[in-house]
Amino acid sequence: MPESLLIRDVPPKIKRWIDDEREQSMLSQREYVISVLEKAYNSKARPSLFDAAQHPAPTSPTGTPFTFVDLFAGIGGLRLALERVGGRSVFSCEWDKNAQKTYRAWYGEVPEGDIRKVKIADILDHDILAAGFPCQPFSIAGVSKKKSLGRPHGFKDATQGTLFFHLATIIDAKRPPVLLLENVKNLRSHEKGRTWEVVRSTLETMNYKVFAEVIDAAHWVPQHRERVFIVGFDKSVFGNEPPFRFPTPPTGKRPKLMDILDPNPPERYTLTDHLWKYLQKYAKMHRLKGNGFGYGLADLDGVTRTLSARYYKDGSEILIPQEGKNPRRLTPREAQRLMGFPDHLSVVVSDTQAYRQFGNAVVPLVAEAVAKQISAVLSWQLARAKNRCVFKGRFGKAR
Ligand SMILES: C[S@@+](CC[C@H](N)C(=O)[O-])C[C@H]1O[C@@H](n2cnc3c(N)ncnc32)[C@H](O)[C@@H]1O
Q: Exactly one of 18, 73, 135, 198 is catalytic; which is it?
């Protein structure tokens, strides 16, 4: 089969977009164009797993079709990933007005606001619940963990008042067959491991088989960014041992910072003498005290430090060296590429907000690799379920 598909009269900007996208998805031009066309064709009447018994699922190159909700959606890093493997969003929730603005521009939908005010009845049934929930400490004052978590719905005691509590309440009410959660790496070590213990046991108490792994995005994008991905499968649907495995990182050429840099960045991103002197002085002071705080001059041939939501402050964690002048910070467009968000998505907010949004986001390519593994389990389940439906007798109604 030929590796490329000839398309005549494609405008150059569309051609560039196809090239950017297919590189990110690691597909040939032919595979990518066909997957886009199939996705457009299927999106007209794509059933969710809920309807699968009534409408047998088509086999498509993007995997088993499914529906999902995007909670604590940010700018939709998880959404992009799930859409790429055949998912269709039925609900989203994000309270930050600027993130909502980006989400609307990129996906044509304004997410609901504060999750604490969302009515469960407004959330449509879904196959996968995705959430990059903020990590908060859990206070288990007065209730021993064992006592609390050993009981059904014990999370109500253990996590009362936290955002995770609201998430768990939604999971408990909606019973999505699959969970895809994402958090900072130190969720696992936070409060001496107690926070992770509460998260894990809460999900297990709700009858989910829980898988968790820290994954470094540096295999996909030129940024060291470790995040914990938590995947849960409802045991009453998938059994006790669903055949899930986290992805193995791609082998071969690693992405390099220089691949995503703008050759002519605007001058305003170069540090002023004043700020550059201050950062050097601050770093020296900490070196003398024996600790490693300070700015990070990035290696153009390697990967950067983690882009944080506070990058807008001085950009000191990722500075780009420049010949004969002060280093510069990343432009918002470069921050976007460092996170692996495709170029056809335009930045629609101020620089400050853009850095915050990218610094908070999930790297879609990493989430996509995880989502592909989930999709394989959905296909496995669909193939073994006698009624060709992940759910037993439940279809896509809100409840
Ligand atoms: C770590 S970010 C999620 C990033 C997202 N998964 C992405 O890829 O862009 C957490 C998000 O939760 C949002 N958030 C925090 N508290 C919230 C609440 N009470 N209701 C809705 N969203 C909330 C924050 O505004 C932030 O965008």
A: 135
* Nearest CA, atom 27, ligand 1: 74
Query: Residue 49 falls within a domain, yes or no?
Result: no
Cα(75)–Cα(94) distance, rounded to whole angstroms? 9
Torsion over CA: 113, 119, 121, 126 (sign) = positive
pLDDT in tens, the chain (399 residues): 445 566 666 777 777 777 766 665 556 777 777 777 766 665 544 444 444 333 333 334 457 889 999 999 999 999 999 999 999 999 999 999 999 999 999 999 999 999 999 999 999 999 999 999 886 655 443 345 555 555 555 566 566 668 888 999 999 999 999 999 999 988 888 878 888 888 999 999 999 999 999 999 999 999 999 999 999 999 999 999 999 999 999 988 889 999 999 999 999 999 999 999 988 888 877 777 766 667 788 999 999 999 999 898 887 889 999 999 999 999 999 999 999 999 999 999 999 999 999 999 999 999 999 999 999 999 899 888 766 566 533 333 333
Domain boundaries, position 86? 59-250+363-384
The answer on 372 and 229 residing in a single domain is yes
**Same-domain status, 84 and 232:** yes
Residue nearest to atom 6 of ligand 1 (CA): 132
Count of domains forming the chain: 3
Is 389 an active-site residue? Answer: no
Gap between the Cα atoms of 57 and 379, Å rounded: 10
Domain for residue 398, yes or no?
no
Q: Do the beta carbons of residue 125 and residue 174 sit within 8 Å? A: yes
Pocket of ligand 1 (CB under 6 A): 72-78, 93-96, 99, 114-116, 132, 134, 163, 360-362
Token readout for 156 is 């109500």
Determine contact, residues 222/338, Cβ cutoff 8 Å: yes
Ligand 1 atom closest to residue 77's alpha carbon, by position in its atom list: 8
Same domain, 8 and 22: yes
> Is there a single domain that holds both residue 71 and residue 131?
yes
Q: Is 264 in the same domain as 133?
A: no
- Give the global pTM: 0.81
193 Rama sector, left if φ>0, alpha if ψ -120 to 50, beta otherwise: left
Residues 239, 320 within the same domain? no
In a domain, 391, yes or no: no
If asked whether residues 283 and 202 sit together in one domain, one would say: no
Residues 22 and 144 in one domain: no
